[in-house]
Task: inverse folding
């Protein structure tokens, strides 16, 4: 399990709760739960610590990341905490791993099975333990997918009721892009790819086809694809990766995409027989918190991608 969010703190006192989940969190500390807190229960670090706590019954297992919020009051900070099944905890600040400095209490950091009877964002069940600032883009998500086994072809084939013709997903009883035009695909890190008028999926491409808005004559098509990721934070920078694949050598060709946010990045790359990152770049979303992925290919079907990854930097 990984928890991520953007946090901007105005002040920090002792044990200010940023996030809590579990069946504790009231005036009693007895229960199973997980806390992410700012501040410490001592004044030795000037309250700049991030604390990650796993509670198992009456046992509290604390991990301290001192100076995490040093010089950060009033600034937006991206926090991600990854809890592994073995009990290993990794903390990331603005996508870079932050080193734990000390521990307290027990040392069992395995997250117990949680009934989620209580779930707090920005506060604890006790009134004094709340965060003083803002929290945005809060997510709980699973780990990275294995790109050797998961791609747009697999995802749509596994999660949507589409008819299969040969090795190509066609639409049930209709032309491409007409019967199930609008879908969402869960990417990693809790992000969602929105697609209107998905044209088709081919097994040999392991990908979803993005139909260009304009044909080879420059005329706007009546039906074209729109791909975007939303709920991003305007002004923040995100790194993205575009994955590409085509096992049919006779159909491999240059693929062109514009990635559009507050600016536009244009990419042209060649398909090959392995699913590997062919484009990595950074961009900030537009004023509405969106990044669009637009194909500039004007062929019959446009161009395909096998997967998209995105993360804040």
Result:
């Amino acid at each position: 399990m990984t928890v991520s969010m953007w946090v901007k703190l105005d002040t920090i006192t002792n044990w200010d709760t940023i996030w809590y989940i579990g069946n504790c969190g009231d005036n009693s500390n007895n229960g199973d739960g997980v806390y992410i807190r700012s501040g410490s229960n001592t004044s030795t670090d000037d309250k700049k610590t991030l604390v990650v706590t796993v509670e198992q019954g009456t046992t509290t297992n604390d991990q301290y990341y001192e100076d995490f919020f040093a010089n950060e009051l009033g600034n937006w900070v991206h926090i991600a905490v990854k809890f592994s099944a073995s009990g290993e905890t990794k903390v990331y600040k603005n996508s870079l791993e932050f080193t734990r400095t000390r521990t307290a209490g027990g040392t069992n950091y395995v997250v117990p099975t949680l009934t989620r009877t209580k779930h707090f964002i920005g506060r604890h069940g006790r009134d004094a333990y709340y965060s003083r600032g803002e929290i945005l883009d809060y997510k709980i998500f699973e780990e990275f997918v294995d790109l050797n086994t998961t791609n747009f072809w697999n995802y749509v084939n596994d999660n949507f009721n589409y008819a299969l013709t040969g090795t190509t997903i066609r639409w049930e009883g209709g032309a491409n892009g007409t019967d199930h035009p609008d879908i969402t695909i869960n990417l990693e890190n809790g992000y969602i790819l929105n697609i209107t008028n998905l044209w088709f999926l081919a097994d040999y491409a392991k990908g979803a086809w993005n139909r260009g808005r304009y044909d080879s004559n420059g005329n706007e098509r009546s039906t074209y694809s729109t791909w975007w990721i939303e709920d991003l934070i305007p002004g923040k920078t995100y790194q993205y990766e575009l994955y590409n694949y085509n096992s049919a050598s006779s159909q491999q060709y240059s693929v062109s995409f514009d990635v559009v946010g507050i600016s536009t990045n244009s990419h042209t790359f060649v398909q090959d027989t392995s699913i590997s990152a062919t484009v990595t770049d950074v961009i900030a979303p537009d004023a509405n918190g969106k990044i669009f992925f637009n194909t500039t290919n004007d062929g019959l079907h446009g161009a395909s991608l096998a997967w998209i990854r995105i993360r804040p930097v």
